[in-house]
Amino acid sequence: MSLKYFVHVSSVSNLSDARYCSGMMVDSIGFNLDENSPYKLSIDSVIEISNWINGVKIIAEFNNSSDEYINSILDKKKF
Asked: Rounded to whole angstroms, what are the CA distances from 55 to 31, 38, 65?
C-alpha cells in the first residue's frame, strides 16, 4: 500500500532512518551535503546508505553551498 500523498523526508543521517523511510514507502529522502553544515554527511556515507535501500528517490540537499562544491560532489557521484 503506497502513501496517499507525496512524502519527502529531509536530512536523513543514518541507515536505520533510511531503511525505515524505504519500508514506509516514502517518495524521496534527502541527505544533508551542505558544505557549511556541522551535520553534513560524507558522500561515501550517502553512497553506502543508498546501497542498502530501494524504492525511494535520493535527494542531495546543499542549501547555500558554493557552485564549485556542488560540482565537486556531483563529479564523485556513484549512486
From this structure: 16, 29, 28
C-alpha cell at 26: 516514502
Q: What is the pLDDT of residues 19-63, one digit of tens each?
A: 999 999 999 999 999 999 999 999 899 999 999 999 999 999 999
Rounded to the nearest 10 degrees, the angle between the axes of helix 43-50 and helix 15-23 is 40
Cell (9 digits) for 14 = 543514518
Select from 53, 22, 69 the least CA-distant residue to 61: 69
3-state SS record for 28-61:
EEEEECCCCCCCCCCHHHHHHHHCCCCCCEEEEE
Q: What is the pTM of this model?
A: 0.85
- Would you tell me how many other CB atoms lie within 10 Å of the CB of residue 28? 14
Instruction: Report the pLDDT value the prediction gives residue 77, as an integer from 0 to 100.
Output: 63
